[in-house]
Amino acid sequence: MIWELTPEQDSETIGYARRLLTGHSEPVSSVVLSSDGQFALSGSWDKTLRLWDLNTGATVRKFKGHEKDVYAVAFSGDN
Q1: Which of 24-31's residues contact partners 24+ apart within 8 Å by CB, and which partners?
Q2: pLDDT at 4 over 70
Q3: Alpha carbons 66 and 79: distance in angstroms, whole number
Q4: What is the pTM (predicted TM-score) of this model?
Q5: If exposure means fewest CB atoms within 10 Å of the residue's CB, which of 2, 30, 43, 68 is most exposed?
Q6: Spatial CA neighbour of 71 closest among 32, 37, 40
Q7: Residue 52, strand partner residues
Q8: Statement: residue 15 has pLDDT above 90
Q9: What is the mean pLDDT of the chain?
Q10: Tally of CB atoms within 10 A around 7
Q11: Residues 58-73 pLDDT 10s
């Protein structure tokens, strides 16, 4: 889920759900944002990683091949 936060002056509403990211078949254990904020990388108990385009909500790439659940993900410093 991608959230849009509202300004602090509006104390009743913190924000709203902007977009739902769907694709993993098991719980997501880790998410990291790219340095430019355009992409997210998620790791899941379904043994996959997904690269998401945060502007469209689409999966850009699905990384398969892990034999165990994925517990942590990261981007390199020069992403």
Answers
A1: 24/48, 24/50, 26/69, 29/69, 29/70, 29/71, 29/72, 30/70, 30/71, 30/72, 30/73, 31/73
A2: yes
A3: 22
A4: 0.84
A5: 68
A6: 32
A7: 40, 59
A8: no
A9: 91
A10: 8
A11: 999 999 999 999 999 9
